[in-house]
From TrEMBL:
GO molecular function: disulfide oxidoreductase activity; hydroperoxide reductase activity; peroxiredoxin activity
Stated name of the protein: Alkyl hydroperoxide reductase AhpD
SUPFAM superfamilies xrefs: AhpD-like (SSF69118)
Active site (record annotation): 130, 133
Bridged cysteine pairs (disulfide): 130-133
Gene: ahpD
Record-annotated Carboxymuconolactone decarboxylase-like domain positions: 94-173
């Protein structure tokens, strides 16, 4: 599978997603590693096996095994952190002052450029809807030198990958073919 195969499976009513997926896959705003890692991390966060398989297949030859593992790690750790910190943000009170007491060592030692890992964490946090994490990671990547355009590209990838996953799930459930 590949990004092309995902595009082919999208119904005609999701033509905009097809076009966005294609243009983002060829975007030059991010480095090739940042782009590929963002796609991989957000595909995992989309929780759709077909999307994850297709995107990992598309980019695994571009990424070293260490970078691929780091993109997967960003999705994994943010899957936990986004729930915990979204709770802290929503409830407030004493929880914000309490230590999380959750192991998060991969954030400090991701095995790749810290800025790339933070960008992938930001994109996954956008998919998972954790405002506190989005703000925190956006601040780190901006202070690290990424532009607003680069941040926007990562979030556009996250939004598109998530929408493709949701649309393919719905199309399957509804029996919609790509010609509908």
């Amino acid at each position: 599978m590949s990004i092309e195969s995902l595009k082919e499976r999208l119904p005609d009513y999701a033509k905009d997603l097809r076009l966005n997926l294609g243009s983002l896959a060829n975007d030059i705003t991010l480095s090739p590693q940042q782009l590929a890692g963002t796609f991989v991390a957000t595909a995992i966060a989309s929780r759709n096996a077909d999307v994850t398989r297709a995107i990992v297949a598309e980019y695994e030859s571009v990424l070293s095994p260490e970078v691929l593992a780091a993109a997967k790690s960003a999705a994994a750790i943010m899957g936990m952190n986004n729930i915990y910190y979204r709770f802290v943000h929503m409830v407030g009170g004493d929880y914000a002052q309490m230590p999380a007491r959750l192991r998060m060592s991969v954030i400090g030692r991701p095995g790749v450029d810290k800025l790339d890992f933070e960008l992938w964490s930001l994109a996954v946090s956008a998919v998972n809807g954790c405002g506190m994490c989005v703000e925190s990671h956006e601040k780190v990547v901006r202070e690290g030198g990424l532009s607003t355009e680069q941040v926007q590209t990562a979030v556009r990838i996250a939004a598109t990958v998530h929408a493709v996953a949701a649309t393919l799930e719905a199309a399957f459930a509804l029996g919609d073919s790509p010609a509908n």
